Amino acid sequence: MKPIVEASSLVKTYRSGRSSVQALRGVSLSIAPGECLGVVGESGSGKSTVARLLLALDKPDSGEIVLNGVPLTGLKGEKLRQMRRHVQAVFQDPASAFNERLPIWRSVIEPLDCFTDAEPPFGADRTGSRKELAALLLEQAGLDSGYAERYPQELSGGQRQRAAIARGIAIGPSLLVCDEPTSSLDVTLQKKVLLLLKQLQRELGMSILFISHDIAAAASICDRLLVMKDGLAVDEFPVRDIRLAGRHPYTRQLVSAVHGEEAFT
Ligand SMILES: Nc1ncnc2c1ncn2[C@@H]1O[C@H](COP(=O)(O)OP(=O)(O)OP(=O)(O)O)[C@@H](O)[C@H]1O
Asked: Which residues form the ABC transporter domain (predicted)?
């Protein structure tokens, strides 16, 4: 099966004044249709930079990203916009993800307003009321339709993140990029949101790029993990192989921090 995303040898350096940071030093990855790939690693290892490049929010210095068979590099204007409809995002901070002057349903429906030829998931009818459609998306994300009229500041962090996920799936993307989507939530809510993402991934057959500093959270929903350190992918494996004795020392360090060194014996 052709991958949804294929990124090869991505290099990205951020420069400001005389200083520069090499955020990515040649990272390659691919995500198959319906697959959940986790990108894990410590703060500053380059995880969010990978997300920004895949979302075309930034450009690599070198390397290539092919999305649904089309190279992103060099795409501009309407062609770039059309590629963007295949990739949606959910970020860490649900508070800043919404316009606080709009009721939540208006933000949830926004991607469908932007891409008028995109079809919503779950066989929903886009010719009906926009508010009802948003309410249906919210319900699929586990939020009662009664919340549709509320403003973002009237929702809890967990509810806002569910609303962000509802918006993320509104145009039925091939790939949902989730950058630390549960990091601002308490442990119980984290688990619920992880379960929701897994359930939606299965129901909609979409791929997920799940970025997290928390290897246990990533392992709980991902099929494969890519471990990053200092701008490099140092390890990559199916989740079932996470405790193999031959894992990269840095992966062992991350796993041991959660499960203890005995995880590998
Ligand atoms: N816009 C920017 N300008 C300058 N440096 C940046 C910029 N964005 C990221 N960096 C630097 O690039 C490196 C990688 O950052 P990135 O955000 O990709 O890491 P991360 O693994 O996602 O970290 P975190 O888990 O803390 O979000 C870091 O050293 C960071 O300080």
From this structure: 5-255
Write down the number of H helices and E strands in the chain: 8, 10
- 3-class DSSP state for residue 193? helix
**pLDDT tens per residue, range 159-195:** 999 999 999 999 999 999 999 999 888 888 899 999 9
What's the maximum distance between 2 C-alpha atoms anywhere in the chain? 58
Mutate to test the pocket of ligand 1, among 13, 16, 27, 48 (most ligand atoms within 8 A of CB): 48
| Domains, the chain, ordered by start | 1-86+175-265 (3.40.50.300), 95-172 (no CATH)
Which ligand 1 atom sits nearest the alpha carbon of residue 211? 22
Q: Which residues contact 15 (CB under 8 A, 6 or more apart)?
A: none
Structure pTM?
0.94
Whole-number Å distance between alpha carbons of 143 and 159? 7
This model of the complex carries an ipTM of 0.96
Ligand 1: lining residues by beta carbon, under 6 Å:
14, 16, 21, 23, 41, 43-49, 213
Phi, psi of 104, deg, nearest 5: -60, -35
**Alpha-carbon gap, residue 232 to 8, rounded angstroms:** 12
